[in-house]
Specification:
7-stranded mixed β-sheet; alpha/beta; Endonuclease, Chain A; 218 residues; binds zinc ion
């Protein structure tokens, strides 16, 4: 029902403003080194010698779009393990873009997840603590563009799955997605994490902020 309402709403909006772009996956496997190198700043332009094709692809488009971010990037992603997209996000962070990530607690710890890498670099990450998955897959660029669809940001999905990604530059749409992001951001505030039943908590001095914030009950 909610989905129908959303579809209808999009249809209505579409009459006035059209969605800008749709990407379909699986993506042709192409090299995105050039895009990343160009975004990293001025430097010697070396011809990439890798055996991959260097033309356009849905992944290249997504990376390119991300790299247009100037001020803020909100990522609300169930699974994030694509190294290329991870590098693009790290690059933005280094460039001074305010990056915030909301993700799924179970999937962020899987091998290959980019989330630890992002965290290590100083990017703020918050995750769910629900029984259900934090299953969204959307991003908001500069509070102006929404990227959403079925695609998890994983190499598996990018290269092998049938997926769609809708890119919309639409103020109303951004508003509702941003409101959802802010709601989750607040709900997943670490101050209110309640992972471990009190009796199972093990205090780890100077290691676990959770133990410091919520002293072990003994
Ligand atoms: Zn290459």
């Amino acid at each position: 029902m909610a989905l129908e309402a959303a579809a209808y709403w999009l249809l209505l909006r579409g009459r006035r403003r059209r969605a800008r772009e749709v990407l379909f996956f699986p993506s042709r496997v192409t090299c995105v080194e050039g895009l990343l190198a160009a975004a990293a700043g001025p430097g010697p332009t070396l011809q990439c010698a890798c055996p991959l094709p260097h033309g356009e692809s849905a992944l290249g488009r997504l990376v390119g779009l991300l790299l247009t971010t100037r001020r803020s990037l909100e990522l609300c992603l169930f699974a994030f393990s694509s190294p290329q997209l991870g590098r693009a996000v790290l690059l933005l962070h280094r460039r001074g873009v305010r990056v915030r990530v909301v993700t799924d607690a179970d999937y962020m710890v899987l091998a290959g997840s980019q989330v630890g890498r992002l965290r290590k670099a100083g990017i703020q990450v918050r995750h769910d603590q629900d029984e259900g998955y934090m299953h969204h897959k959307f991003a908001i660029i500069d509070k102006k563009v929404v990227i959403t669809g079925s695609l998890n940001w994983t190499t598996q999905a990018i290269q092998t799955n049938r997926e769609n990604v809708l890119i919309m530059e639409d103020a109303d749409c951004v508003k509702v997605f941003l409101a959802e992001f802010e709601k989750l951001w607040e709900n997943y505030n670490p101050a209110s994490y309640i992972f471990f039943p009190e009796e199972k908590q093990v205090p780890k001095k100077n290691k676990c902020s959770l133990a410091i914030e919520k002293p072990f009950n003994k």
